[in-house]
Specification:
73% of the residues lie in helices and 0% in strands. The protein is mostly helical. The protein has one domain (25-120). It is elongated, with a radius of gyration of 22 Å.
Length: 121
């Protein structure tokens, strides 16, 4: 049997009070990854395909508007693609949730930029 040291013994001997909170962040991220099926290759492939389509829309908008302003969200979509790739190769569920959240934020920011460009120019 492997000894976990005196710190583990102190933690286990401390009685729990009714108002004490237990940190279950690992359990929450595992449930979130399982519910959203973030470990599935089809989900990762769909995210990558959608990002490619968004980038092509930026290029098409540049051609049709004869302006370089629609290329502005391209950087956000590229960063979202990098985050999606990092989520695909992440080693644990906590990193998968973090990188997928970063990808979602990049996509949302790119759409916001597209809307602002459409409104202002």
């Amino acid at each position: 049997m492997i000894s976990q040291g005196p710190a583990a013994a102190r933690r286990s001997s401390v009685p729990r009070m009714p108002g004490d909170r237990v940190s279950e962040s690992g359990d929450v991220t595992t449930r979130l990854v399982a519910a959203l099926r973030l470990r599935r290759p089809k989900v990762q492939w769909t995210i990558a395909s959608a990002l490619i389509v968004f980038m092509l829309v930026c290029v098409a908008a540049t051609i049709t508007r004869a302006s370089v302003w629609p290329l502005l969200p391209l950087g956000s979509f590229v960063l979202a693609a990098v985050a999606a790739w990092r989520a695909r190769v992440a080693s644990d569920d906590r990193h998968v949730v973090g990188w997928t959240s970063a990808a979602a934020g990049g996509i949302a920011f790119g759409f916001w930029l597209l809307g602002m460009i459409n409104r202002l120019w």
